[in-house]
Amino acid sequence: MHYNVNDFRFEQKVGDPQNIDTKMGPLVSEQHYQKVKSYLEIAKDEKAILICGGKRPELPEYLQDGYYLEFRAL
Question: Apex CA 53: angle with CA 71 and CA 39, to 5°?
Fold first, then answer.
């Protein structure tokens, strides 16, 4: 069976963890958010190719203070 990473990405709804449709909530803290972002930068520095994601998703106003990142594939 063949999977397309972009199809998988769109199935991974990022958002409010109390919403039944959400598949991926926020990271647990700013420290965790910064650590994940730093690992993405290390991967890029080591010539990894970011296929999709890895950035802050567009979310409703009430979720703007959360530490969210899109699903990412390298």
Answer: 80
pLDDT at residue 3, as a whole number: 59
Is 15 in contact with 1 (CB distance < 8 Å)?
Answer: no
Tell me the average pLDDT across 41-58: 87
Q: What is the 3-state secondary structure (H, E, C) of the chain?
A: CCCCHHHHHHHCCECCCCCCCCCECCECCHHHHHHHHHHHHHHHHCCCCCCECCCCCCCCHHHCCCECCCCCEC
Expressed in angstroms, the distance from the first to the final Cα of the chain is: 20
- The residue behind tokens 């970011």 is 50
- Distance CA(61)–CA(65), nearest Å, equals 8
Query: Model pTM greater than 0.85?
Result: no
